[in-house]
């Protein structure tokens, strides 16, 4: 079953392709540069903000409309639009465990749901955790050594070392090699690659997977709930999450705790529904999962949200997007 609440709002021009999504509810909000960008984006998106407010205040309370629209225009400078091919070097982790315990908090689940094709991304791509679960295709540039199609990886960790945009799991690193060249590429340890962001469908069965919600071990009834989102498809970022009792419109917002983990200390009673603001390129929408956690939700359990997220940034969203790899 799929259900969506979709809002239309004006597409904004590519003003700041690499600006991090502001952390709306964090108390560690870096002032200065972000504030400047904020005012810039307010200025640019004011007309769409006003029309957004008008168009949804008919179906929500005015206060809620203001709140929702504020979201959209705060996130309108986020970076998911990028479809360009980038150049970098990549290295690999010799230990698989290094990545599966990555900063996104997927833990050992990461290996399961991606087939072990994992990557740690630099801060600009990790994007304070909004980049968790993003998928990239990459191939190394030595045609003797490396296969044409390269490999697909999913971001599960933060790469603090800024010499490479990514550090891969050894499985993903090997997968870039031509048949029989796997040992050669491992021996090199560091290769030149080109990469681009792609919609997530790794492996194939992930493609039609519903978004799942895992209740984290730190959750404690009745006051604290931490959840992790799994199988976030498409080319998307979850930038806001609210939770409410099923059937209620008394929503509590959740904050990104770290990586793909969101939490709140105002937990509604009863069975729980979620709604998320998901961005893809310059589009944002609410996705509403109407019945996710049962009354007796338990830690460590993965619950099906009943919705899929599979939006893809619009074609032509980046001027560089020609839908193909350039020849090496
Ligand atoms: C490509 O890789 C092969 C095999 O490792 C190596 O012999 C060759 O020198 C490399 N070519 C370049 C241009 O680096
Ligand atoms: C990498 O990080 C170090 C320390 O954080 C910094 O001094 C250096 O300028 C960075 N290099 C690049 C290329 O960003």
TrEMBL record:
User: Which regions form coiled coils?
Assistant: none
Q: According to its UniProt record, what is one Pfam family this protein matches?
A: DPBB_1
Q: What is the species listed in this Swiss-Prot or TrEMBL entry? A: Camellia sinensis var. sinensis
Q: Name one GO cellular component term.
A: plasmodesma
Q: Which GO terms describe its biological process?
A: anatomical structure morphogenesis
Q: Where is the Expansin-like CBD domain?
A: 223-305
Would the keyword Lyase turn up in this protein's UniProt record?
no
Does the record's keyword annotation contain Flavoprotein?
Answer: no
Q: What protein name is recorded for this chain?
A: Expansin-like A2
CDD domains from the UniProt entry:
DPBB_EXLA_N (cd22276)
Please report which protein family the annotation says this sequence is part of. Answer: Belongs to the expansin family.
Q: Which UniProt keywords apply?
A: Membrane, Transmembrane, Transmembrane helix
- Report domain Expansin-like EG45 positions: 101-205
């Amino acid at each position: 079953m799929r259900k969506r609440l979709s809002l239309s709002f004006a597409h904004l021009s590519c003003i700041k392709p690499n600006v991090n999504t502001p952390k709306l509810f964090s108390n560690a909000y870096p002032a200065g540069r972000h504030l400047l960008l904020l005012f810039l984006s307010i200025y640019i998106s004011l007309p769409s903000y006003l029309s957004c407010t008008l168009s949804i205040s008919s179906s929500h309370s005015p206060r809620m409309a203001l709140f929702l629209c504020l979201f959209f225009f705060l996130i309108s400078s986020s970076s998911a639009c990028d479809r360009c091919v980038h150049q970098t070097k990549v290295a690999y982790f010799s230990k698989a465990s290094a990545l599966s315990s990555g900063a996104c908090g997927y833990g050992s689940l990461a290996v399961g749901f991606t087939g072990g094709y994992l990557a740690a991304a630099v801060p600009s791509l990790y994007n304070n955790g909004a980049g968790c679960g993003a998928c990239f295709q990459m191939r190394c540039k030595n045609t003797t050594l490396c296969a044409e199609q390269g490999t697909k990886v999913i971001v599960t960790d933060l790469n603090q070392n800024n010499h490479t945009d990514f550090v891969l799991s050894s499985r993903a690193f090997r997968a870039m090699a031509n048949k029989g060249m796997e040992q050669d590429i491992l021996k090199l340890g560091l290769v030149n690659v080109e990469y681009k962001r792609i919609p997530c469908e790794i492996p194939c069965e992930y493609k039609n997977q519903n978004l799942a919600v895992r209740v984290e071990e730190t959750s404690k009834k009745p006051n604290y709930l931490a959840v992790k989102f799994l199988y976030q498809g498409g080319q998307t970022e979850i930038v806001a999450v609210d939770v409410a009792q099923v059937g209620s419109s008394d929503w509590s917002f959740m904050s990104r705790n770290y990586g793909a983990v969101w939490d709140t200390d105002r937990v509604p009673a009863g069975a729980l529904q979620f709604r998320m603001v998901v961005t893809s390129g310059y589009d944002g929408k609410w996705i509403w999962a109407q019945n996710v956690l049962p009354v007796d939700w338990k830690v460590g359990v993965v619950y099906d949200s009943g919705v899929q997220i599979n939006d893809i940034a619009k074609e032509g969203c980046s001027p560089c997007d020609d839908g193909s790899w350039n020849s090496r």
